[in-house]
């Protein structure tokens, strides 16, 4: 059976997965069908409800990409300070990193071989 | 047909080159004729690549000696070492050839309509074809010096393509950074080649591997070659040029640049597995590659999540995905000398990594094409200014989601198929690697949800009311890649058996590569 | 530049081109070859640009014409390589035939130009490409520094 | 191979040039100087390769003027020539990009002219 991948501990067969997915989708569809099917277009039923407040214009209503995951960056502020600093964007620094990595890997290679 | 296959490895390179030089001549006469010529030539090349790959995987390693009396006459009478320029195509080369053929064809079709209004298109297509020829040459050559030459062809034409839109300051800067980094890396590679030549008076990879003694100079050459190729493929901490260049290149070029990075990864593998192979201290070299891979995964994904420029974000994600490949291949290299471990998990880790190479080219290529489509319609790459594009660009948003899910390793797309192979095999080597890998995959999903949320969902803004779906050729190019993603995800076993397993076998089997060149001569 | 410089440059360019062609054609028997000869001819273009100024040169040394010459040179090279594909790509199919003077002996020999088969022709292709390419580069840099863009 | 110290001078010179090239690339922020650094790096490697090809009492493989049938195999010379050609192409491309960067940003400093970081 060439459709299947033997991956050490178990196998992965996308066809079985697809069948399971289809069954789940069928269940979801069943649940959805039990909901209210009819609504009136262009009435208050389709308007956005925001605790009775005035809904702002579309321009003001969206979350900008830069604000997504604000809390994540706030928590990991120290990590990000450390990791963004080397990304200077100056071409000289790229060459420094190249020389440094070459030197470090040479040293590691020679030290390990001497230690053996 | 058999004659065609016998000559196919050089025809692939030569047809691409000849088309590159025909392009300006035909382009002066008629644009339509030029476009037809390019597409036909690349389709012919793709056909040749598939035929060659089939032949290599069914029969044996394909050797082609330029200018000799017969294609397989690598060592002419009176000589004891291989002379002339020799192309050598084994499973891994053929695999890379398939990746390059698919992506360059898709990129050309996409560019035909994405760059319709730009000036200097003759030059653009010449450079694009030169870059494709350079990459084909890099993966097909059996000679270290030719590898250097083709690497330079790839990087010079790549830099010119990145800086193609001369009206933007940042694309000039990106091109400058790319060419400086490439020039330094390739000059150091030439230095290392000189070190090897000084000891063995050989340039052929197979012949060098047969006589390799692993002296002190060889070790220095190894370190220089490895770090230079890691620089070219964009592994942390040498990845910083990558986000600057991928993000500013025109529409379809990042997809090609990804493949150029993969060709550098191929060169790294050729060096460490074939050129040094059994003489190398595998566990140290393997661990160096694993550590670079881990850093790439982690730093790549955490930097990606911070970006607000959509192409820059995908570029950092590329760093992260190449980390997966490096980890898988590093594990394979680390256990190369241990047949038991190699059978138990080493081959599978390399299978996963090699499989991830083609998957990476497909889904990152698709993501870059989608980002190019967004730029084509709204003229900005800034996520802060995007909102609600899904209302008008429905197909594009679906395609983006497909690429994003594949990249995050969500079943049943192709990213999952290769990532599970890497996870399961690497777990037996060191469980911590797998844990980091899964964490990184989760973060990757978060990265793309950020893009999907801010670009495609949300209220439809008045200023983007008139945005339409991109022209048909662009959609067609994206759909080809998407179809590849779904096909590779649903039938991973087929792909593994047909093209991935031969590539891994070629990596492990150093003797076959040497024998194809040296023949019976010791 | 003064009239003297321009006149001398105009006379000198002929010798530069002849010397360049000599280096190209003799490339396979003496040191030299397509790139070197092409670079010599391109240095003639530098001479003209310095003598007459990039504005004047621009009127006849057009980027499009150079691009055509460049592509033709590269195509000549590749087509000659393709012509040998009956045996192997890049096979020197002309050498050894009677028209081309037979196969030269190994070791010291008179070094007749026509015994090279396709190699002098390939050198010519490379020479054309390098000449046009380097002239285009020099011209482009000269125009750039004057604050102009290239024509499309 | 040459083992005496004076015979090794070309190698020393090549390494010194390599060091100078890398020093310029690391510490000089002027873009034109970066181009020069790359050119010097290329020259050092050319020198290294040419020195590798030197054989004592070797004859240059010019068939018309060689005294005997023993000639030096000119592989490294060919490599050097190729590297020079590539170096010309690279320098031309970088210089044109530098001109464009200067036009867009009005500076040749690699720190001041950078637009992208992070």
Report on this structure.
By secondary structure, chain A is mostly helical. Chain A has one domain. Chain A contains 5 helices and 2 strands; from the N terminus they run E-E-H-H-H-H-H. Chain A has a two-stranded antiparallel sheet with strand order 1-2. In chain A, a hairpin with a 2-residue loop joins strand 1 (5-7) and strand 2 (10-12). Chain C has one domain. In chain C, 63% of the residues lie in helices and 0% in strands. Chain C is built from 5 helices and no strands. Chain D is 61% helix and 0% strand. Chain D has 3 helices and no strands. The A-D interface holds A 84, 87-92, 95-96, 99 and D 22, 25-29, 34, 110-111, 114-118.
Brief account:
The complex is a heterotetramer of chains A (116), B (522), C (152) and D (118). Chain A has 116 residues and is mainly α.
User: How many helices of chain D?
Assistant: 3
Distance between the termini of chain A: 46 Å
Averaged pLDDT of chain A: 84
The strand count of chain D comes to: 0
Shape of chain A: flat
**Which structural class best describes the helix and strand composition of chain A?**
mainly alpha
What structural category do the secondary elements of chain D indicate?
mainly alpha
The top-level CATH class of chain D is: Mainly Alpha
The percent range for helix content of chain A is 40-55%
Rg of chain D (CA only):
19 Å
Secondary-structure element pattern of chain D, one letter each: HHH
**Which percent range fits the helix content of chain D?**
55-70%
| Poorly predicted runs of chain D | none
Radius of gyration of chain A: 28 Å
The largest sheet of chain D is:
none
Outline type of chain D:
elongated
Number of helices of chain A: 5
Poorly predicted sequence stretches spanning 5 or more consecutive residues of chain A: none
Q: Give the SSE string of chain A.
A: EEHHHHH
- Mean of residue pLDDT of chain D? 87
What CATH architecture of chain D would you give?
A: Orthogonal Bundle
What is this structure's SSE topology?
The complex is a heterotetramer of chains A (116), B (522), C (152) and D (118).
Chain A: E1 5-7, E2 10-12, H1 14-33, H2 58-61, H3 70-75, H4 77-84, H5 91-115
Antiparallel strand pairs in A: 1-2
Chain B: H1 2-6, H2 8-29, H3 31-58, E1 62-65, E2 86-89, H4 91-114, H5 121-140, H6 144-162, H7 169-200, H8 205-211, H9 216-233, H10 240-246, H11 253-276, H12 282-304, H13 310-334, H14 339-378, H15 394-408, H16 414-429, H17 431-456, H18 472-490, H19 492-508, H20 510-518
Antiparallel strand pairs in B: 1-2
Helix pairs in contact in B: 2-3, 2-5, 3-4, 4-5, 4-11, 4-14, 4-18, 4-19, 5-6, 5-11, 6-7, 6-11, 7-9, 7-10, 8-11, 8-20, 9-11, 10-13, 11-13, 11-14, 12-13, 12-17, 13-14, 13-16, 13-17, 14-15, 14-16, 14-18, 14-19, 15-17, 15-18, 16-17, 16-18
Chain C: H1 3-25, H2 34-52, H3 54-58, H4 63-83, H5 118-145
Helix pairs in contact in C: 1-2, 2-5, 4-5
